[in-house]
Q: What sequence folds into this?
């Protein structure tokens, strides 16, 4: 069930009143059954995967906590991780693995073609697998007491707002809130509606409007000139942001209405001044997951600079692989890792030559803007690999932009959509820029009537600019 | 209680903003010089009407025809315009204006009796009963959404064009591209086989209704040029003979009229040069044909 579908609107209109009239265990049961229904609407057979993951992680966590023997604890942790990764690996990476194995076998003239399987990738598998794994690892690290109630734990894994495309919520954040008393509070519900409306604006207006321009350019980059391709890349940067940040915000907003406080998943990432900051602002729940469960687990920055750089690279390669079973995703992760390492090395050089930002206001602002633009350019370079159908097409796009020889707007197609897209991006950058400079969030909280007018205005913008074609969210495939 | 009050405020404010914005858009739509705004908000009283899908839009140069003939001309063609919408627009035109002498229809739209692109024109749904009914029938959700939010009727690519043509007449909106020799050389024979293969019965029914309804007007079906590598003459000839036997109307077949590739914007659309060429040919044809009162 897509958030941007009539079915979901009916679902949520029925669910919210029921949620508030119920209390205690009945409410939790309602949340769980509704979540399973939400997921089952896509394909009920894959509910089995969620059930298996839930049971395995639930029992492993309880066993980890009850056993005093470290080896036994490790055994249960291993069972949990292996089962979770096996499920993820089979459904997401099996065909990729076989395909590459076949290529290697063919390369060494070994004529034994292994057949791939016709598997449908379960929606959101990477999200709920990682969420389940983080729980068991936290219990193993003694950061968390295992949840004794299977009902509560199952609801944590399957809670529908964030089930299929995140954010990845930690058990420490979710489980205590599930049992807490929740009342209907006007400000909370208006705040939640505001998040949901802004999320829909990001998805239906920004992402889906830009998609029309982006898809054509990435589908066949050869036939477009350099300017056209460059527009496609920049638009894609905002498309994926609108799509994913939009989904996250709708999820967080719905949870907020239901009485949960989930942390932000995006914090105006395109205003980042360097690539490391970008990764602290982009898909925060996943970046912090990578930091806590991979980067730190493989040594982090505890074993010297060289190993730290290696760890960054490994983490980012896995970040790429998590996004999809394809070399383009791995390369995307890899180059982001290289960017982060380069940025760290650059900082070392800068600190050695004692370079500091100019103190004059105007010059400082120019300097800041330049940093933001440079960071954005690097991020866009990464997006080329992420979005392209294959490596060859990524290189075509990069070559076209690099050659810088055909920048005539006349031969650019879809001028009307480009005009519209540019205007929408301008609006988004303006709104986010203002919120960064003047803390408009706090302002709107202080003046609730202005917030209501603002929500109404965004709703009208959605009505006027929205694309209502039930386009799936990009991150569903991850 | 606070919640109900706030939700009520939100709904009221939404409708106020929505009404204000849609009012402004409606005024802009009325001001626009784009073809259908002229159709619904102006008296056009043209002598000659050109209509069709994108092939019609790019093959008929109505200002040039006006210059050649001295007759007031208008093109009501639009990209991907299906025959069902041709019927709606012609009907609405004839309700509001004096009868034209000639209607040229580019026949490729006969291959499509669907309702593709219908939502593009929802900004005129309150001006046309036929259009409104069609939207209600084929897109009920959009219809009811338009009833709730008036600004939604302006949510279309067409409205952006409406704004673009706020002061600029759109009659010379014809492709300006020219295909290159390299593009032509890379085309494979029959790669983009042209669609006119057989007559769609529901299209033919609509076309017959148009012909029956406007008996006093000369309706001239035209087949615009197609680049040679993508033209299937066998299909075209069979289509033409079938069409002519059913309607007793003769198609002016210009599918082979242009061999100079610089007059094409792509394989099935002429550019401005091609449009002038075809328009001149049509003008010459009319002058030479004694059966057409002109």
A:
């Amino acid at each position: 069930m897509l958030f941007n579908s009539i079915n979901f609107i009916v679902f949520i209109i029925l669910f919210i009143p029921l949620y508030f009239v119920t209390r205690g265990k009945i409410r939790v049961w309602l949340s769980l059954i509704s979540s399973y229904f939400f997921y089952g609407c896509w394909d009920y057979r894959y509910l089995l995967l969620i059930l298996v993951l839930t049971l395995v992680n639930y029992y492993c966590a309880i066993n980890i906590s009850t056993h005093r023997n470290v080896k036994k604890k490790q055994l249960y942790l291993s069972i949990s991780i292996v089962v979770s990764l096996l499920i993820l690996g089979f459904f997401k990476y099996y065909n990729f693995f076989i395909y590459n194995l076949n290529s290697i076998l063919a390369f060494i003239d070994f004529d034994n073609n292994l057949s791939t399987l016709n598997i449908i990738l379960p929606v959101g598998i990477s999200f709920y697998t990682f969420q389940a794994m983080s729980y068991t690892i936290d219990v193993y690290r003694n950061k968390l007491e295992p949840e004794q109630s299977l009902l509560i734990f199952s609801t944590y894994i399957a809670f529908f707002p964030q089930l299929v495309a995140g954010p990845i919520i930690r058990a420490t954040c979710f489980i205590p809130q599930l049992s807490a008393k929740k009342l209907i509070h006007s400000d909370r519900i208006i705040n939640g509606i505001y998040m949901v409306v802004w999320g829909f604006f990001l998805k239906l207006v920004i992402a889906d409007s830009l998609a029309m321009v982006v898809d054509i350019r990435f589908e066949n980059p050869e036939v477009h000139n350099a300017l056209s391709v460059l527009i496609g890349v920049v638009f894609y940067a905002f498309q994926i942001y609108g799509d994913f940040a939009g989904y996250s915000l709708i999820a967080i907003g719905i949870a907020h209405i239901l009485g949960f406080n989930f942390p932000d998943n995006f914090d105006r990432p395109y205003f980042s001044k360097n690539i490391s900051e970008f990764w602290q602002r982009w898909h925060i729940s996943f970046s912090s997951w990578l930091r806590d469960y991979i980067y730190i687990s493989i040594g982090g920055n505890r074993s010297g600079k060289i190993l730290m750089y290696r760890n960054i690279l490994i983490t980012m390669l896995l970040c790429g692989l998590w996004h999809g079973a394809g070399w383009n995703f791995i390369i995307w992760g890899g180059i982001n890792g290289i960017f982060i390492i380069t940025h760290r090395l650059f900082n070392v050089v800068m600190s050695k030559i004692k370079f500091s930002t100019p103190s004059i206001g105007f010059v400082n602002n120019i300097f800041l803007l330049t940093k933001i633009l440079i960071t954005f350019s690097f991020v866009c370079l990464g997006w080329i690999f992420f979005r392209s159908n294959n490596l060859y097409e990524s290189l075509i796009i990069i070559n076209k932009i690099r050659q810088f020889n055909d920048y005539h707007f006349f031969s650019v197609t879809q001028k009307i959509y480009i005009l519209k897209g540019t205007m929408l991006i301008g609006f988004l950058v303006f709104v986010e820029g203002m919120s960064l400079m003047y803390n408009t969030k706090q302002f709107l909280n202080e003046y609730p009537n202005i917030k209501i007018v603002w929500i109404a205005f965004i709703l009208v913008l959605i009505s006027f600019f929205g694309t209502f074609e039930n386009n799936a969210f990009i991150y569903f495939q991850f | 209680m606070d919640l109900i009050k706030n939700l009520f405020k939100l709904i009221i404010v939404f409708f106020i903003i929505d009404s204000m914005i849609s009012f402004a858009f409606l005024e802009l739509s009325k001001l626009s010089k784009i073809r259908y705004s002229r159709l619904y908000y102006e008296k056009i009283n043209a002598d000659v009407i050109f209509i069709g899908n994108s092939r019609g839009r790019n093959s008929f140069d109505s200002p040039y025809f006006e210059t050649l003939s001295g007759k007031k001309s208008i093109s009501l063609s639009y990209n991907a315009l299906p025959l069902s919408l041709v019927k709606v627009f012609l009907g609405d035109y004839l309700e509001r204006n004096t009868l034209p002498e000639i209607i040229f229809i580019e026949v490729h739209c006969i291959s499509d009796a669907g309702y593709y692109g219908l939502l593009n024109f929802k900004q005129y749904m309150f001006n046309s009963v036929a259009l409104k009914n069609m939207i209600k029938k084929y897109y009920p959700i959009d219809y009811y959404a338009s009833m709730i939010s008036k600004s939604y009727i302006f949510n279309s690519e067409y409205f952006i064009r409406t704004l673009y043509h706020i002061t600029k007449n759109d009659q010379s909106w014809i492709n300006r591209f020219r295909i290159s020799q390299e593009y032509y050389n890379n085309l494979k024979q029959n790669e983009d086989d042209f669609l006119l293969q057989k007559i769609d019965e529901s299209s033919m029914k609509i076309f017959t209704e148009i012909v029956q309804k406007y008996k006093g007007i000369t309706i001239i079906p035209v087949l615009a040029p197609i680049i040679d590598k993508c033209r299937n003459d066998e299909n075209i000839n069979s289509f033409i003979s079938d069409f002519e036997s059913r309607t007793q109307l003769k198609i002016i077949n210009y599918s082979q009229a242009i061999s100079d590739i610089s007059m094409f914007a792509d394989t099935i659309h002429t550019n401005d040069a091609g449009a002038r060429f075809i328009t001149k040919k049509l003008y010459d044809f009319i002058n030479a044909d004694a059966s057409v009162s002109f």
Q: What stands out?
A: Chain A touches chain B through 27 residues (CB under 8 Å).
